[in-house]
Amino acid sequence: MDTTNSSDFSPLSETTLYILVSLTHGPLHGYAIAKEVQALSKNHVILSVSTLYTTLKRLLEEGWIERVGEDPDPDDGGRPRKVYTLTERGEFILGVEKKRLRALLTLVQTRTMGEEK
Amino acid sequence: MTASIQGIAKIYGLLLRLFPRDFQNEFREEMEDVFTATLEEASKTGASLIVRACFFELFDLPGNLVIEHLSNLRKGNLMKNKSIEVGRSRAVLMAAVGMTVGWVAINWVLINWVYRQDFWKSSQNQLWIFYMADAIQFTLPFILCGLMLGIAAGLGRRAFLRIGLWTAAGGVLGYLVNLPVNTIALNIYLRTVYLPARADLVNLIWQIALACIYGIFSGAGLGFAFGGWKTGLKFGLIGLAANAVGGLAAHYFFNTGLVYRMPLRIAGPSYIVTGIQGALAGGILGWFFGKARLPEVNPAMGKSNA
Q1: Selected residues 14-53 of chain A with any CB under 8 Å from a CB in chain B
Q2: What does the pLDDT look like over A6-60, one tens digit per residue?
Q3: What is the torsional sign of CA B239, B66, B76, B15?
Q4: With 0-12 CB in 10 A as exposed, 13-18 as middle and 19+ as buried, what is B181?
Q5: A9 touches chain B (CB under 8 A)
Q6: CB < 8 Å to B20, chain A
Q7: Alpha carbon distances (Å) from B180 to B81, B122, B175, B208, B241
Q8: How far apart are CA B142 and CA B140, in angstroms?
Q9: 3-class SS at A79?
Q10: ipTM of the assembly?
Q11: Which residue does chain B place closest to A32, by CA atoms?
């Protein structure tokens, strides 16, 4: 796997981060990703369809997610939905972002505790 | 699905056609389905939520359209695989025709319509508007010249949008750079206005400087549209030379009164002068375009992607 310098893509935007996180429990189609992001963020992040798909397109181009076929039996009986999943590279990037956020949180906590004392 | 949701989804489907074609091919159907599903879910709660969902989508759409189109243009420069072969004589002819028509047409519009509007009388102190007319005057011929070269090269439909946009962007940059140049030149000109010989010289240098700056930026935009940064840089320099030669020739013909002795006076001397200016500048650009090796260009410029 290409482990390009982590500073090349970190920090991730909120939208990107939520979409990647929404795919950690398995492949989802576009609508399910939007609903999952809304649920994960407790309605704080609501993705418009255009934002969702321009972001998905970028993530596909970066190779952080990939299509894994189609959902053959959509609930509404419409067209089969394309399903997206995290790639190995996507997982790696999510890991890097997790480390960055954790370090940031530790820094804030340490500094705040120091001030309280 | 109710008729109203179907109708809204259809309108949304039409709006999605504003995205670049590749993006549409990849995602339009999916986006329509997801939007329809969003509306259906909203309709279960109430009509107000449908309206909210529509406004939310409409609010986000323009920004994403711009991002996608910019990304499409940028990507174009990285994907180079098609050759452009244009013979020099053909390139010179096409570029000269484009530039000449551009110069004559824009002057006709300015003289016969724009400058006759009362609007100009009331905005005499707003010099930036006058300078904007300059920008259009210098940039439009470059755009037409680029489009003619695009025709000569047999490029696809999408290429023309790209050429037009990047050359226009060059013109906008030229306008911004020329704003301080105009201010300085005007101050110097006003100080020398009582010395006609010196004022004429200042005016000439001013006009040539403007032409050169617009030449650099419009030429760079045109070159970038055809072949990326290197070609952009090269055509910036060629644009400078082309506009300098064209501008000096126009000055010569106008001030020696040569055009007044020409038999073709029906269109007035200014059109003949600007026509000569355009033909020379376009000819120079075409000469280097035909000669210039532009071996690679992005697929968006190719016929196959039209």
Answers
A1: 30-31, 34, 46, 48-53
A2: 555 668 889 999 999 999 999 999 999 999 999 999 988 889 999 999 999 999 9
A3: negative
A4: middle
A5: no
A6: none
A7: 41, 23, 10, 15, 22
A8: 5
A9: coil
A10: 0.84
A11: B34
DSSP designation for A67: E
A1 located within any domain:
no
Residue type present at position B178: N
pTM of the model: 0.50
Judged on CB neighbours under 10 Å (0-12, 13-18, 19+), B38 is buried
3-state SS, A5-55, equals: CHHHCCCCCHHHHHHHHHCCCCCEEHHHHHHHHHHHCCCCCCCCHHHHHHH
Q: Which residue has the higher pLDDT, A1 or B229?
A: B229
Decide if B85 touches A, using CB distance below 8 A: no
Residue A110, in any domain of the structure: yes
Establish if A105 belongs to a structural domain.
yes
Q: What's B297's DSSP letter?
A: B
CA B198, CA B192: separation in Å to the nearest integer? 6
β-bridge mates for residue A82, sequence order: A70
The token duo for B103 is 């110069």
In terms of residue numbers, what domain contains A80? 10-116
Domain total in chain A: 1
Does residue B82 sit in helix, strand or coil?
Answer: strand
Cβ neighbours around A87 below 10 Å, total: 19
Give the Cα separation of B130 and B120 in Å (integer): 8
Q: How many CB pairs under 8 A join A and B?
A: 53
Across the interface, do A56 and B65 touch by the CB < 8 Å criterion? no
Angle between helices B157-192 and B47-78 (to 10 degrees): 80
**Do residues B99 and B281 touch, judged by C-beta distance below 8 A?**
yes
String of b and e for B166-176 (b: at least 16 CB within 10 Å)?
bbbbbbebbbe
* pLDDT averaged over 10-residue windows placed end to end, chain B, 306 residues: 80 85 87 90 82 86 85 55 65 87 85 74 66 85 88 76 87 88 85 76 84 90 84 89 86 64 50 83 87 50 38
Dist. CA B112–CA B106, nearest whole Å: 10
Sequence-distant (6+) residues with CB within 8 A of A102 are none
Residues B282, B287, B292, B296, CA torsion sign = positive
